[in-house]
Amino acid sequence: MSVHHQGVPSLLERIATTMSGAIGRVRADLAGADPVVRRSERADFQCNAPLALAKRVGVKPRDLAADVVARLDLDADPVLASVEPSGPGFLNVTVTDRAVWAQVAARLADPRLGVGEPELGRKVVVDYSAPNIAKEMHVGHLRTTIIGDSLARVIGFLGADVLRQNHLGDFGTQFGMLIQYLDEHPDAAWHQDELGAGTSAVSALDGLYRAARAEFDADAGFADRARSRVVALQSGDPATVAVWQDIVAESERSFTAIYDRLGVLLTPEDSVGESFYNPMLADTVEELVEAGLAVESDGALVFYSQEVTGPEGRPVTLMVRKRDGGYGYDTTDLATIRYRLRELKATRLVYVTDSRQALHFQLVFEAARRAGWLTDGAGAEHAAYGTILGPDGTPFKTRSGGTVRLMDLLDDAVSRARAVVEEKNPDLDPAELDRIAESAGIAAVKYADLSTSRVKDYAFDVDRMVSFTGNTGVYLQYAHARISSILRLAGDPDVTVDPTVAPHPAERELALVLDGFGAVVTEVAATLEPHRLCGYLYELARAYTAFYDHCPVLKADEPVRGNRLALCRLTARTLGHGLGLLGITAPERM
Ligand code: ARG
């Protein structure tokens, strides 16, 4: 027997099951068809099946709708209050007051808030963040880090065994040059403990690499020594490898500082950089050659796509082995996908990178399919995202045109959040203000990113992000804190729900929005689109506000007060949990 947690089924799911049964009783040939039940403006729910299905069996939608209603036994149904044909062939569905409250009570008793574990038993790789060693993390790494982390959380919560993979760019000829330069400039400071708090090892290494590059171009002698150093690194010369390891470790410390500040799940244990696959490259290539998938072209080995063609029908390829015998980014990704499928036995691979790499991954996936690594039981998806733009609509840059350091961007967001929080709450003591500003500033940045549809570009507008109003992370945090304070004022009582009370329309609406939480979380995992959860949480916060405007909580008498406190508590939990799945904190006070 499976110990699969199904969660408390939602009202929508229960209605769908009932409607589907009735449809099957009307017409056996429609048994099992999607009953197309949705929330509705006109009633609580709407069932669109008659309209959607009538054509398939050659009947009139209205006739099918009437037949379905005739097959329902409303008196015996604990959920359905009324089901009425409407329009060209919809059914308007109203649920009983009792079912509304019973659902709130059941959700409150469910630690998973109605979210099942449909991913139990699956092994899912989420490849995200992947900054490059000895380089500062910049605005380009923000989206992969934030989106990937949210997807890892959501898919993990649905029961999958999630393998976070930080595919660090930790290999390449540039490190030979850098190591040679460090060797010749032993006084250069780049270890974090030799540097001040205001800077980082990667920032120092970034500068040293630039200096090395300049020397490489200017001094033929240095260029030669740097080239021999590349050979030394690749052939495993112990002294050279030791410096490289040191560079990797120091860089990781800088990345960890960013991850900690952003509150993402990545730890050094999730780092499986490009170099990890080096020992597998030759075998991977050999396997592709044997399968006829890597063929010679101009002294190199290339993979030709059968699915994609370039402009004027030109072939599109992956570079499997360069003419000089070297391997690059493409080969590493081929070895990586093979390893993840064969050795890690992952059943789903999610790659979170910007959309400019779409073709690269399309080809890697095609190669993996044709090589037989990616089989029908497994899937690989590129969760591609758009560019962060500056106020002028071009890619986000500093005022002087440089790349924006991620740490600076976060500092800026936090300081603007501090101004907004302080204005709203001038009496906060400084330590509390610091804490709230940090959490609001980070929430603002993360939410702004997650709430835009993933594939779209968006403009980085700090003032809008840190606002307490509108669809922002700060607004949702604040909504959560406000509800928490009401619950505190009520003394955080044990609440009991009285299902015989007729709900106010605003209570009913809030309860029905709460009912949709599990569905949206499942949808995020299926589509890899966290903005759906953002949209849901925003809708929830607004339904709560409407409820709070119409329905006094603390001043109400029992049993109404208990029911309202139950709605408050369930809303706070759902908001808090939903923000948590986005990787955003939900403080109790703001
Ligand atoms: N380090 C790469 C970059 O900065 C991203 C790596 C993404 N993952 C992968 N398996 N290729 O563009």
TrEMBL record:
InterPro entries: aa-tRNA-synth_I_CS, Arg-tRNA-ligase, Arg-tRNA-synth_N, Arg-tRNA-synth_N_sf, ArgRS_core, DALR_anticod-bd, Rossmann-like_a/b/a_fold, tRNAsynth_Ia_anticodon-bd
Single annotated GO MF: ATP binding
Residue ranges annotated as motif 'HIGH' region: 131-141
Subcellular location: Cytoplasm
GO cellular component labels: cytoplasm
EC identifiers of the protein: 6.1.1.19
Catalytic reaction list: tRNA(Arg) + L-arginine + ATP = L-arginyl-tRNA(Arg) + AMP + diphosphate
Domain DALR anticodon binding: 476-590
Annotated ranges, domain Arginyl tRNA synthetase N-terminal: 13-95
SMART domains reported for this sequence: Arg_tRNA_synt_N, DALR_1
Keywords from the UniProt entry: Aminoacyl-tRNA synthetase, ATP-binding, Cytoplasm, Ligase, Nucleotide-binding, Protein biosynthesis
GO biological process annotation, one example: arginyl-tRNA aminoacylation
Main subcellular location: cytoplasm
Keyword Nucleotide-binding applies: yes
Broad EC category: ligase
Family membership noted in the UniProt record: Belongs to the class-I aminoacyl-tRNA synthetase family.
PANTHER family: ARGININE--TRNA LIGASE, CYTOPLASMIC, ARGINYL-TRNA SYNTHETASE
Record protein name field: Arginine--tRNA ligase
Gene symbol of the encoding locus: argS
